Amino acid sequence: MSLHRLLVVEDDVEMAAMLAAYLQRQGFYVTRTGDRAGALAALKAGRVDLILLDVSLGADDGVALCAEIRQAQDVPIIMVSALSADHQRMAGYQVGADDYIAKPFNPDLLLARIRAVLRRAGRAPSLTHRRRDSVLRFAGWCYDARRDEVTAPGGWQVSLSGRETALLRVFLANPLIPLTREEIAAALDDDEAAGGRAIDMLVGRLRQKIDPALIRTERGTGYVLAAEVAHDPV
Amino acid sequence: MSLHRLLVVEDDVEMAAMLAAYLQRQGFYVTRTGDRAGALAALKAGRVDLILLDVSLGADDGVALCAEIRQAQDVPIIMVSALSADHQRMAGYQVGADDYIAKPFNPDLLLARIRAVLRRAGRAPSLTHRRRDSVLRFAGWCYDARRDEVTAPGGWQVSLSGRETALLRVFLANPLIPLTREEIAAALDDDEAAGGRAIDMLVGRLRQKIDPALIRTERGTGYVLAAEVAHDPV
DNA sequence: CGTGCTTCGTAACAGTTTGTAACGTGACGC
DNA sequence: GCGTCACGTTACAAACTGTTACGAAGCACG
Fold it and tell me: What phi and psi values does residue B222 have, to the nearest 5 degrees?
């Protein structure tokens, strides 16, 4: 079974208890908290698969909290609220909520929607690298992940530095998806690189060694690998 | 910009037309169909980023169709229905829908939920139409989406900047449809541009590079691409 | 420990892109 | 005809990016 970990952020203790009991019976691992500080602490403490976030949290604002969480993490968030007006719902979606459920709600319907979001989130690609033990082909080029070797369409071998290889792998893991400098820096586990122009330099050097047209610039945004990638299992 | 491809499956022609027009103005590439056969054909023809699926399709059953599609593909599906009872919603989620929206609905809320699902699905804007309709012809001109190249009727090549290309694609996605500045800004994912006269400048620069007569001004309203667009499969 | 090489970052410069401001011009209502 | 306002166009400034140059850090080797 799933054993997903849910975080219920709800300041109404009775409501939170009922919700937690129900969800636990449905096979989820539930953490409860009632305010912003508790939610952030729980997120810091460990991985959370989905957040049920009440909009009205007493002193704290659920919408603002949603935005705050979303800035740092891509964790699925379902907002729960007694406020059901369209503009209030849209405010929730605006700050990155995956769904917005008005109180009172049918618990079974909530469950269905939790499952729908979890299913979808489970398949979302992340910025992490994929399997290393394969050969990737893109636009006539070839990257052997086991040997860290890059072969040009003509058969020539190109030697990349460690950092260039890491960058290439980031692109290969996210083909045709525009990546910001911040995302690239994060994928390289190098937060400092996000500040200066190190990423630009790196991209420039990689471009010089492989086909410059393969990495396109998204002005004001970042860079994209302009080719599809085929994974050859070996 | 977005340029996601949506498939609207709706047997009420008027409703479908309104929906398609609205979504096109929001910068989506919309395909319409009214029944199961049409939906399956569209899915077979090319990649679709999201399906808006009406539950009541005359002879066909939307819920069954959803299940059928889900068995074959992981494409995001939002069900749309006049049936808003909880058990009917749950039936939708049961067969793999990502969201379920009851009619009548606020178009802006629908838009927010489409965006939420697309974001979670992690789909890069579909490049299918680039491949399948990778060459668009309009009034003797030609736009190769794969290379972002524009060719004049005489055969000369015109080089457009990124933003000019984006604007041209917005027009090509909405031929003969008058677009307000706000709609263009929205399609360009640039809310700031709606305020000043950036859109006017952009249109002016695009006009200068291609035939000025191709983009007509709707005084007091916005601009129209004054040509039909043919999609050349490649 | 010094030397030479490679790698990788910052600084600086130039070319391009794009928005704002300003001004003229043409269209529309009267 | 005429005033007003939307729009086209020019000029300019700011931002972004590619590229070069250069220096620091790491590493192999004698």
Answer: 175, -135
